[in-house]
Design a protein that fits this description.
Number of helices: 47
Number of domains: 5
Organism: Astyanax mexicanus (Blind cave fish)
Strand order of the largest sheet: 1-2
Radius of gyration: 45 Å
Strand content: under 5%
Protein name: NCK associated protein 1 like
C-alpha cells in the first residue's frame, strides 16, 4: 500500500528520535540566551553600552524592516564596531536560525505523519506515541521560550545590521527569521492556527492517556489501600516477575503527561467542547498543580496561560469557568495531596530497600518496582520544587515545604546504589528471561500473524534470533551488551504498523505490542539501566533552584531524625551533569560551578555540624578529665583527714562537692543527659557518612570525610591555642602539664569518632600537633610554640634576669624569691622537669628549636652590648691582659676599668638563658634524632652548642675581620675575670645550699663563660683550652679543662674550704 511505502521511505522513527534530541538542545539554548540577557554581568555589552543605545532603540522600533540608509546616524555605533558585533552575536543569531530550521523540520514531519494517517495509543505503540507527543510539546516549549527572550529582535537585528554593513547585503536567513519572530509575538495564537490540521492525531494520542494518567494520579490513601510498591503484601507472588500490559507507562513522568495534556489541549482545543473524555482528562491535569515546567527553572502558570488563551476565543466561556474552578481546587487541595504522597513514599521506599538489601536477588523479578519507586519519588520532588518558588495564597503554606526531604532523597540514592551494586544479578535474570521466555513467546505470537509484509517480517525474525542467541557465557565472560538496535527496530516496526491501512496494523495485534513493550524493558535491564535512571530519577532541576535546594537542606539539618540522611543532598548533585546537552556547552560550565558550589556548601555544613558535636563531647570529656588532676585532690584529702580526726562536719547550708564520676551513676533510664543527646546526634550525623566514601560531580572527586577532617583540623588548632589561656597583658598561661593533659583528653574523645566512621584520627592529631610545633599554623595563626616561647622569654626569663626568680641547680628548675612583691605565678610550677617534659612533648623538637633560636637572639643581644663595653675599655683591657702577673699594676688598671657590674650582669643573663635552655634540652633526652644542628634541638648533649656558634657567627659584620673578633673575645674574658671580685661586695651574692646556687644567679656565670667562650673561639677557629687556662675562675663544669689544669690555676684546697664555710651557715630543719 502507498501509505506503508511512505512510512518505509520517510523514516518516521529515526526522524522523531533525531528531532526530539535536537529540539531539547534548541530549547536549552533558548533558555541559556534568556538567562544570559537577563543577567547584567553576562549580558552582551552591545545591549548595555550607551554608545549603542540609539541603535538598540532604532532596531527595536523598525524590526524587521530596518532602513540602513535612513538610519545611518542611529546605526553609526554599529558601523564602528561591526566586526566585534558579528563575532559577539553570531552564536545568538545562529541559535535563532536553529529554531527556524527546527520548526521547518517539525512541520514537515508532522505533515508527513498526518499524510500517513498514523494511529497513536500510548498503551500499544508506546514509543511512537511518546516521541510524537514529546516532539509537539518540545516544539511548543521552544516557541514559548523564544517569546520570553525580550532582546530577541535586537540580537537578530543588530547582527544583521553588522552583516549588512560588512558585506553589503543581509544574511540569507534574515528575512524568514525576522518574519518568524514577528509571527510569534503571540505564540499560542499562532501555534493554535498551525496545529489545526494536526488536531485529530494529537487528540487521539492525548486521549490514550486516559488509561494511564488517572491511574497514576491516585491519592496517597488509594496507594496505601493498594499496598503500592510493597513486596511483602502478597508473599505468594514474591518471586513472580513484576509485569503488566503497559510497563513503560508505569514509570512515565507525571509532569511529562501533564505537559502533554495541558499544552496539547491548548493547541488542539476543539475536542474540549465536544468530547467529555478530553474535558475530564484536561480538568484532572489542571487540578494537579499550578505550574508545569517549560525547561530548567522556566515554568508555565497553567491556569493563567489557559485562561488568557481561551479568553479571546468565542464559545469558551464554560472552559474559562472550568479553569477557574480547577485553580481553586488546586490551591485548596493539591498541597496536602502531594504532602501525603511524599509521606507514603518515604515509608514505601524504606520497606522496599530493606527487603532488597536483605534479598538482592529480588532485583531481578522486581526491577520494575525500583523504577516505579524512583519515578513516583522524582515526580513528587519536582512538583514541590517548582511550587516552592511560587507558593499560592493558602492557609497551609507549610504544605509547600518539607523538612523530611532528606529521607526521600536518601532512599532514591540507596535504590540507585542497589541497581549499581547488583547489576550482575539484574543482567543474569533478564538475560535468561529474554532468551528463554520472551524470544519463545514472541516467536509463537509471530506465527499466529496471518499476513506479514516482508519488511516487518524481517524485523520480527531478527528480534527472535537476537534474543535467542543470548547466553550466560557472554555475561560471565564480561561481554558488553548492546541491544539498542532491537529497541530502534521495535520503534521502526511501530511506525510501519501504525500508518493508516497498514497490512500489519499493530492495533489489531495488542498481544504483539504487549510482548514487545515488555521485551523492550527487559533489554534495557541488560544495557540501558543508566539511561533509564535518567528518565525515572533525574532531579537535576534542583541545580536551577538553589534557594529551594538550600532551604530543604537547612530544614532537614535542623531535624535530628533527618541528620542521618543529609549526605543525600551533596550526592544528588553528582547526577546534575546528566541533564546537560552538547548543543549548549556554555551552560555546562555554569552548571559545573553551581554544582560544585552546592556540593561544597552541603559537605562543609554537614562537617561543621559533626565537628561541633565531636568537639562538644571532647570538651565535656576534657572537663571531666580536668577534675582528676592532682591539684583538685587537696579538698578530698582534707575531707578524709577531718573525718578521721572527727572534726565537725560542714553546716547544712553547705552542699558537699560531688566526687568525679558521679555523673555516670544512673538511677532512671528515662533521664537523658546532655552527653547522651550529643552522642545520639553524633551517631545520626556519622551514619550519613556511611553512604559513600567518595563520589564524583562533573569529573571532580569529592571525599566527605576529608571535609570533616579539614574542619576538625582548623577548629582543633584554635581550641588547643585557646586552652593555653595565654594573656599577654597579665602574662598568665596554663601550665604545660595541664595543657598536655587537656589535649590528651581531647585526643581520647576524638578516637571515639573512628568507631562511627572510617577516618584517620591519628593522622588528624599528628597534623594538628605538628603545626603547633611551628611558629605559625597553616592559616597563619599563632601556635602553642609561639605562646610558650613568648611567655618563657617575657614572663620567666625576664624576671630571672632581674633577680626576682632564681635558677635552682639542686631541683633543676627556677624558683621565686620570697619577697613582698609576690609573683603572679610560681616559677617552679612552669620550669621543673615534669613541666618541661610536658612542654617538650607539646612543642616537640621543632618547637624547642624555635625556642632555642629566640633564646639565641637574646644572647646575641647581650653579646653585642658586651662588645660595646669592650670597645669602650679597649686600652685598659689590653694593658690588663699584658700585665696579668703584676698585682700592683693590675690593681691600678682595674680602678680605671668601668662597667664591671654591667658586664657581670649581662653575662649572668646569658648564663640564666643557657641554664634554662639546658633544662629544656634535658627534657628531650629520650628523643634521639640526628647529630650536629639537630642534636641540641633534640636534647642530645654537645660540648659546643651549634646554635650558639651559628648565632655568634651571624653577628659578624662585613667590615670586621676574624682577628678583630678574636681580640675582642680575649679581652672580654679578661674583662669578666677582672670584674669577678666585685661580686663579693654584692649582698645578693648569697649561696643557698637548698637551691644549690646564688640568689642573684651568679652561679650561672660559669655556664655563660664556658658556652660563650667555646662558641666564640669555635666561630674564630681558635684553641679553647689554651685561652680558658688564662681565665682564673671556678669552671668545674667546663669540659675543656682537665683536673690538672684546674689544680695549676686554682688549688682544690681553696675550693674545699669554701664549700665547708658555705655548709656551716646552712641550718637544717626537720619535720
Amino acid at each position: 500500500p502507498p501509505l506503508t511505502t511512505m512510512a518505509y521511505q520517510q523514516k518516521l522513527a529515526e526522524k522523531l528520535l533525531v528531532l526530539n534530541d535536537r529540539g531539547q538542545g534548541v530549547l536549552i539554548r533558548m533558555n541559556h540566551i534568556k538567562k544570559t540577557c537577563s543577567d547584567p554581568k553576562r549580558r552582551p555589552s552591545f545591549l548595555t553600552d550607551k554608545a549603542t543605545e540609539p541603535a538598540v532603540k532604532y532596531i527595536n522600533r523598525k524590526f524587521p524592516n530596518i532602513d540602513f540608509r535612513g538610519g545611518s546616524q542611529q546605526l553609526s555605533s554599529i558601523q564602528k564596531q561591526k566586526t566585534a558585533v558579528l563575532e559577539g552575536l553570531s552564536s545568538y543569531y545562529d541559535s535563532f536560525v536553529d529554531v527556524m530550521e527546527f520548526r521547518d523540520h517539525v512541520y514537515e514531519l508532522l505533515n508527513t505523519i498526518d499524510a500517513c494517517q498514523c494511529f497513536f495509543n500510548i498503551a500499544v505503540n508506546f514509543d511512537f506515541t511518546k516521541n510524537y507527543l514529546d516532539l509537539i510539546i518540545t516544539y511548543t516549549s521552544v516557541i514559548l521560550m523564544l517569546s520570553r527572550i525580550d532582546d530577541r529582535k535586537v540580537l537578530v537585528g543588530m547582527y544583521n545590521c553588522a552583516h549588512e554593513l560588512s558585506n553589503g547585503s543581509s544574511d540569507p536567513s534574515y528575512p524568514r527569521l525576522g518574519q518568524m519572530i514577528m509571527e510569534y509575538e503571540h505564540p499560542l495564537k499562532k501555534l493554535t492556527e498551525e496545529f489545526g490540521p494536526h488536531t485529530k492525531s494529537v487528540t487521539e494520542a492525548l486521549l490514550s492517556l486516559q488509561m494511564v494518567y488517572p491511574r497514576r494520579n491516585f491519592t496517597a490513601d488509594q496507594w496505601r489501600r493498594a499496598q503500592l510498591l510493597s513486596l511483602l503484601s502478597t508473599p505468594a507472588t514474591l518471586l513472580s516477575p513484576a509485569a503488566c500490559d503497559t510497563m513503560a507507562c508505569e514509570y512515565l513522568p507525571m509532569e511529562m503527561m501533564e505537559r502533554w495534556i495541558i499544552l496539547g489541549f491548548l493547541l488542539c482545543h476543539n475536542s474540549l467542547n465536544s468530547n467529555a473524555a478530553s474535558q475530564e482528562l484536561w480538568k484532572m491535569a489542571l487540578r494537579s498543580g499550578l505550574y508545569v515546567t517549560l525547561t530548567r527553572d522556566e515554568v508555565i502558570n497553567v491556569h493563567k496561560l489557559s485562561e488568557d488563551h481561551f479568553d479571546g476565543i468565542k464559545g469558551y466561556s464554560k472552559r474559562i469557568a472550568d479553569i477557574k474552578e480547577c485553580k481553586e481546587n488546586a490551591i485548596a487541595n493539591c498541597g496536602a495531596f502531594h504532602r501525603e504522597k511524599r509521606h507514603f513514599l518515604r515509608g514505601a521506599l524504606k520497606e522496599l530497600i530493606k527487603v532488597l538489601e536483605d534479598q538482592p536477588a529480588l532485583l531481578g523479578p522486581k526491577a520494575l518496582y525500583v523504577f516505579m519507586a524512583l519515578s513516583f519519588s522524582r515526580d513528587e520532588i519536582l512538583w514541590l520544587v517548582r511550587h516552592s518558588e511560587n507558593i499560592p495564597k493558602t492557609k497551609t503554606p507549610e504544605d509547600y515545604s518539607d523538612s523530611n526531604m532528606a529521607e526521600l532523597l536518601y532512599y532514591m540514592e540507596r535504590l540507585r546504589a542497589l541497581l549499581s551494586t547488583y547489576r550482575y544479578v539484574i543482567q543474569r535474570y533478564h538475560l535468561q528471561y529474554l532468551s528463554q521466555f520472551d524470544a519463545l513467546l514472541l516467536n509463537d505470537t509471530i506465527q499466529s500473524i496471518y499476513v506479514c509484509p516482508e519488511e516487518e517480517s524481517v524485523l520480527m525474525t531478527s528480534f527472535v534470533s537476537q534474543l535467542s542467541a543470548l547466553n550466560l557465557k557472554q555475561l560471565d565472560g564480561g561481554e558488553d551488551f548492546d541491544l539498542k538496535a532491537i529497541r530502534l527496530d521495535w520503534l521502526r516496526l511501530q511506525a510501519y504498523s501504525s500508518v493508516g491501512k497498514a497490512t500489519l496494523a499493530l492495533k489489531e495485534y495488542p498481544d504483539l505490542a504487549k510482548i514487545m513493550n515488555m521485551t523492550q524493558f527487559h533489554t534495557r535491564m541488560m544495557d540501558d539501566v543508566d539511561e533509564l535512571l535518567i528518565e525515572t530519577a533525574d532531579i537535576s532541576i534542583l541545580c536551577f533552584y538553589p534557594r529551594v535546594f538550600e532551604k530543604m537542606f537547612s530544614q532537614s539539618s535542623e531535624d535530628t531524625s533527618m541528620q542521618r540522611y543529609l549526605m543525600a543532598f551533596p550526592m544528588v548533585c553528582a547526577h546534575f551533569n546528566q541533564s546537560t546537552h552538547t548543543m549548549c556547552p556554555e551552560e555546562m560550565e555554569l552548571m559545573e560551578k553551581q554544582t560544585l558550589r552546592l556540593c561544597v556548601k552541603f559537605l562543609e555544613e554537614i562537617a561543621q555540624q559533626t565537628c561541633g558535636v565531636v568537639l562538644e563531647i571532647c570538651a565535656e570529656q576534657c572537663n571531666l578529665h580536668e577534675q582528676l588532676l592532682p591539684k583538685h585532690c587537696a579538698e578530698t584529702i582534707s575531707t578524709a583527714r577531718n573525718k578521721k580526726l572527727k572534726k565537725p562536719m560542714p553546716k547544712k547550708g553547705e552542699v558537699p562537692k560531688e566526687k568525679p564520676g558521679t555523673e555516670s551513676h544512673r538511677k532512671d533510664r528515662a533521664v537523658v543527659t546532655n552527653m547522651d543527646k550529643m552522642h545520639l546526634t553524633l551517631t545520626e550525623l556519622c551514619t550519613s557518612y556511611s553512604m559513600c566514601s567518595d563520589f564524583t560531580a562533573f569529573k571532580h572527586i569529592l571525599v566527605p570525610a576529608e571535609f570533616l577532617l579539614s574542619q576538625l583540623e582548623q577548629r582543633l588548632s584554635k581550641i588547643f591555642v585557646r586552652m593555653a589561656n595565654y594573656n599577654q597583658s597579665t602574662q598568665d598561661i596554663a601550665r604545660p602539664s595541664e595543657l598536655l593533659s587537656g589535649i590528651q583528653a581531647y585526643v581520647t574523645g576524638l578516637n571515639t569518632l573512628s568507631r562511627y566512621i572510617t577516618v584517620d584520627v591519628a593522622r588528624l592529631v599528628k597534623t594538628v600537633l605538628l603545626q603547633q610545633t611551628q611558629p605559625l599554623d597553616s592559616h597563619g595563626a599563632q601556635t602553642i610554640t609561639t605562646l610558650y616561647t613568648n611567655w618563657y622569654l617575657e614572663g620567666l626569663l625576664r624576671q630571672a634576669s632581674s633577680g626576682a626568680i632564681a635558677h635552682c641547680p639542686t631541683m633543676h628548675c627556677f624558683v621565686n624569691h620570697t619577697s613582698e612583691n609576690e609573683q603572679n605565678f610560681k616559677a617552679q610550677e612552669f620550669s621543673d622537669i615534669c613541666e618541661l617534659r610536658a612542654l617538650a612533648e607539646l612543642i616537640g623538637p621543632y618547637g624547642l628549636k624555635f625556642l632555642g633560636e629566640n633564646l639565641m637572639w637574646h644572647i646575641t643581644s647581650q653579646v653585642a652590648e658586651l662588645k660595646k663595653l669592650v670597645f669602650e675599655n679597649m686600652d685598659v683591657l689590653v694593658q690588663l691582659k699584658a700585665n696579668f702577673d703584676k698585682p700592683e699594676t693590675l690593681s691600678n688598671l682595674q680602678k680605671r676599668l668601668t662597667g664591671c657590674e654591667n658586664v657581670l650582669k649581662r653575662m649572668t643573663i646569658i648564663g640564666v638563658i643557657l641554664s634554662f635552655r639546658k633544662l629544656a634540652q634535658d627534657a628531650l633526652e629520650e628523643v634521639t634524632m640526628g647529630v650536629y644542628e639537630l642534636a641540641s634541638a633534640t636534647g642530645m648533649k654537645c660540648d659546643i652548642d651549634p646554635a650558639l656558634v651559628s648565632a655568634i657567627t651571624n653577628m659578624r659584620s662585613d667590615n670586621s675581620s676574624t682577628e678583630e673578633e678574636y681580640k675582642i673575645t680575649c679581652l672580654l674574658l679578661v674583662y669578666i675575670a677582672v670584674s669577678m671580685p666585685t661580686l663579693s661586695i654584692d649582698p645578693s651574692t648569697f649561696y643557698s645550699r637548698e637551691h644549690g646556687g646564688h640568689q642573684n644567679n651568679v652561679h650561672c656565670l660559669s655556664t655563660a663563660i664556658n658556652h660563650l667562650s667555646a662558641a666564640m673561639f669555635t666561630a674564630q677557629d681558635k684553641n679553647i683550652q689554651q685561652h680558658l687556662k688564662e681565665f682564673l675562675q671556678i669552671v668545674e663544669e667546663s669540659p675543656f679543662l682537665s683536673q690538672d689544669m684546674l689544680e695549676d690555676c686554682f688549688p682544690y684546697v681553696l675550693l674545699r674550704n669554701a664549700y665547708r664555710e658555705v655548709h656551716r651557715t646552712f641550718i637544717h630543719t626537720m619535720g
